[in-house]
């Protein structure tokens, strides 16, 4: 069958999208449904209503899709084991074709400048943004068939010189990029899968709006993100990110592996 005759590039696939209740995660889940995913599990941190809204959107796109949502805390010692076990059970599946580690850890109520950063805050960022995604992959690995796709949602903050209070967040995402490359080196060839991270730039989500409205991020930093650091002179939309993740989840992306893929509209043009 030629690619032009395939009605949905992700038809029949089983996917996990952590942090899929809203923002980028919701957009990815919705995009997957439109591309034919048969079964999908999403996680949420605390907002079950938002998760229900996402499931309703998926059902509207495809009434036959089997979907589930459950709470998961990226700081939990059993985060990865719980997510994998609940996915397999709730979706009645033995395999997981696509994993999108999207759930971020970023506590705007605990975002001090680097000079007063506590070890606990730093450890939480590293646990939530680097350790948890890696553990999710490792726990899911026995259930990922050949042709599987693993996509870690990173950030351009991993490559930038960041202002306060973004410094430790950027460091945690840099750790995720490094771990992604290493996981690809160790596991991709043996298991026939691809493992990539996506470098997301400034995108219109609650993660950006909350610190902006609360005055945590300097206004000049917000203005710079919107006007200077993208080729199109705008902030990203969640659908922009979802399209790139959808491509990486497909067969057509098979020759992209162990890479950090930009999804940022030309952010950091000088570096690229």
Automatic annotation (TrEMBL):
<dbReference type="GO" id="GO:0016614">
    <property type="term" value="F:oxidoreductase activity, acting on CH-OH group of donors"/>
</dbReference>
<comment type="similarity">
    <text>Belongs to the short-chain dehydrogenases/reductases (SDR) family.</text>
</comment>
<keyword id="KW-0560">Oxidoreductase</keyword>
<protein>
    <submittedName>
        <fullName>Uncharacterized protein</fullName>
    </submittedName>
</protein>
<dbReference type="InterPro" id="IPR036291">
    <property type="entry name" value="NAD(P)-bd_dom_sf"/>
</dbReference>
<dbReference type="InterPro" id="IPR002347">
    <property type="entry name" value="SDR_fam"/>
</dbReference>
<dbReference type="Pfam" id="PF13561">
    <property type="entry name" value="adh_short_C2"/>
</dbReference>
């Amino acid at each position: 069958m030629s690619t032009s005759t395939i009605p949905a590039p992700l038809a029949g696939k089983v996917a996990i999208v952590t942090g899929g209740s809203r923002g980028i995660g919701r957009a990815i889940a919705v995009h997957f449904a439109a591309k034919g995913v048969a079964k999908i599990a999403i996680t949420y941190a605390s907002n079950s209503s938002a998760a229900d809204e996402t499931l309703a959107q998926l059902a509207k796109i495809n009434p036959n899709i089997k979907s589930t949502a459950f709470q998961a805390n990226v700081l939990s010692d059993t985060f990865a084991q719980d997510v994998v076990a609940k996915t397999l059970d709730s979706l009645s599946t033995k395999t997981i074709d696509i994993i999108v580690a999207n759930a971020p850890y970023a506590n705007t109520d605990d975002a001090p400048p680097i000079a007063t950063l506590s070890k606990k805050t730093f450890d939480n960022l590293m646990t939530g943004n680097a350790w948890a995604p890696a553990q999710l992959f490792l726990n899911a690995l026995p259930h990922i068939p050949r042709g599987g796709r693993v996509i870690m949602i990173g950030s351009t903050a991993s490559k930038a010189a960041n202002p306060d209070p973004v410094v430790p967040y950027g460091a945690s995402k840099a750790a995720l990029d490094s771990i992604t490359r290493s996981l690809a080196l160790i596991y991709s060839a043996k298991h026939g899968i691809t493992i990539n991270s996506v470098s997301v730039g400034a995108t219109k989500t609650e993660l950006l709006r909350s610190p902006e409205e609360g005055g945590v991020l300097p206004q000049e930093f917000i203005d710079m993100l919107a006007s200077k650091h993208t080729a199109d002179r705008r902030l990203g939309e969640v659908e922009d990110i979802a399209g790139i993740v959808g491509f990486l989840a497909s067969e057509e992306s098979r020759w992209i592996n162990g890479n950090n893929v930009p999804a940022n509209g030309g952010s950091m043009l000088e570096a690229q």
